[in-house]
Request: fold
Amino acid sequence: MDDAGACPLPSGHVDAVIVGAGAAGLSLACHLASVGWGDRVLLVDDGSRPVEQRSWAWWSTGAELLAASASTAADYLWVAGDGWRRRLALAPYSYRRITGPELSGVTEGLMSARPGYQRLVGSVRTLVPDGTGCRVAIESPGPSGTRTVEISARWVFDSVGVGGSLRPPASHAYLDFHGLRVEAPTTDAFDPQTVTLMDFRTDQSTGVAFMYVLPTSTRHALVERTVFAHADTDDREAQSALHEAHVRRYLDRHVGRGPWRVTGREIGTIPLQRGPVPAAVDPVIPIGARAGMVKASTGYGFDRIQRHSSAIASCLIRGRSPAHAMPSRRWSDALDAALLRVIREDPAAAVAILSALLKRNPAPRILAFLDEDASILDQFRLFATLPLMPFVRAHAGAVRGRR
Ligand SMILES: Cc1cc2nc3c(=O)[nH]c(=O)nc-3n(C[C@H](O)[C@H](O)[C@H](O)COP(=O)(O)OP(=O)(O)OC[C@H]3O[C@@H](n4cnc5c(N)ncnc54)[C@H](O)[C@@H]3O)c2cc1C
Reply:
């Protein structure tokens, strides 16, 4: 210990350093600990994105490691558009939400069963592969200033892009969202068993937009408006004011009479479409958003992160390289790119496609398709319900653009 009172810095050799303890880092630590891999694993986070204020939603059949740790699980979805509204039964899926503290807590629990696992507050500065693994330089705050340590790791799982070497190019498509946490005047305003996944009954003049309602009780919910945007906005204040007016209008028109008490706000962007993701090359394996885990057409990444984490753990416990854990997603990436192109070039057609998807298919088929789990037959059934011409035009445009 080089500073009295500071937590001891690791030294020597570790089996793995996980860079970043957000969704991907915490999930991977859970999966590695649960399969019992590794004697020494270090999970490092600099605190720049505290998990306390974060949460992740996803749908699943509940088989994955973290499903039981989610505090919210709904069994129905509302989907709606102009002149139509549909309540879908999700079984065998549930729509879940895990908060940052819940994810952090389950990670602590699993790590405590593995004495060689350690969490460290610190900033990973450099990664230098050296033939047998990687030298990792970490700066960590202590009572009398920053301490620096260099350790060697057999594997590095990087959700950050340390030093820019693994940083993918900037995104050119975003989900731009603005949510209000509201408290209703009565106790029967929301059904906690039913999440509004996509409701297009909101202004579409600045791009494809939809409302999302996540109830946390019969009186409380997050009510959010999301727009597919093509650039990160320059004027967030103006954009937020506009969004908020639409959220309030939606509440009054489609949820119920106020007064609504606003207890918090969730505002942000999710980058959707980046260039090629950095390759997983021994000993540095990208994870999380930087490894392309955020699906370009939906902005959801948590389920993909779980699958990647599970596949990495499975490779390692079998003595295989975790570089093989990345699935090929050429077909779904091509579909996502085509949909984003339609969204950009023909927003009305995009709303028609998404509405047909939600109106004419059972929920399990839609969710399996979005998860890239649908059988060929189910994909065929699903495509048969969609207006496909906009896709054909988008694909033709993309091919022309490549020439
Ligand atoms: C606002 C927002 C909301 C989202 N909501 C959902 C959702 O509900 N459901 C879903 O499926 N997907 C969601 N996504 C998509 C995706 O699941 C998340 O982006 C997810 O958090 C990605 O995980 P990650 O670990 O790659 O990144 P992060 O969760 O951001 O974790 C990165 C971590 O690295 C740390 N860090 C940064 N630099 C350093 C450094 N030098 N050294 C050490 N640590 C460092 C940060 O503090 C952070 O904790 C959302 C994305 C955004 C942007």
